[in-house]
Amino acid sequence: MNKNNYPSILVLVLIAVCCLKQPSNLNAQSGNSSIKSFADHWEFKGIAVEEPGYHIWCTSPIDDEKGKIHLFVSRWPQKYGVDPGWRSHSEIAHYVGDGPEGPFRFSDITLAGTGKETWDKYGMHNPSIHKVGVEYVILYIANNDFHQPPHPSNQQIGMAVSKSLHGPWEKVNGDGKILSPAQNPDYWNFLAKNGVNNPALLPYKGGFFLYFKSQDAKMGLAIAENITGPYVQLPFSVTANNRRIEDGYAFVFNNQICILTTDNDGIVQKGGGLLWKSDDGIHFKTYEAGFHLMNEYMFDISLLKPKWYYGSKDRMKFERPQLLLKNGKPAWLYVASGCNIYGGESTVSYVMKYKD
Length: 356
What we know:
It contains three helices and 24 strands. The protein is mainly β.
């Protein structure tokens, strides 16, 4: 980050402390229900990744210079169940397809738990892939004990880099760890009960914004001048929600910094998604529907025989949204779900296309 052109991290933090405001509902402000929300633009296209014998979650997309699409996916053996399997046996797998809608073929294992006495012994999860300069960067979470307790308070965020999407991947700073729960008792997520998770990276003005979920299912922000850190946390959450959200994905859209999250408890729609918007990336004042329930994108759901492996059977909920951007605009949305709408024997990930 060029200190002559951009404010320092300290200045950004001071501005944020002085100007924090409660988010408000963008749709309510507009007063025009006929205007399409972000959620109304998605067209369901089908399954992105399905792997016999494995549960699939957390599908993060990126394209390469040849136009192929690479998906980095959390997966673990079906025999362990969705829970505790995701926190005990999850690994990050790499799939490749000729286009955004696939079909996608397994390529290799990107990262797996060390099985040793390290912070990332278990549960490599929440992959988020990016290209920064000439290198690829993948963020993830892991833990050192999947039993409850201490999980989920021991969730932390790591990073690995590679010159190729096929690896090899090198963990940064020796052990890969870049973010832990705040140790300052005055911070909003001091020794957070759910640690830090759901990493969402946004290169911004020569530096890097790292959004994450922590205490009370709110989103926080850590800022760094270099991709590998150190990342300095803001002392408060950047979303002031009083209902649970998670699974943020950060991007720039229509000249605003956006975070696409789930809407677990119904800020707009219970089980749907939220698109949070900000002018500075620190104060998220407005939001709108980010995506609807799965069945709202289907023509005749009665023809299907869905099976639930996680979540409530009264809601066909999408989770862990990740976008593939084209020319800086949302083009495809990849989502996980505890519901396999086709009745398969495990969870799968789905893909939707953005329609104007």
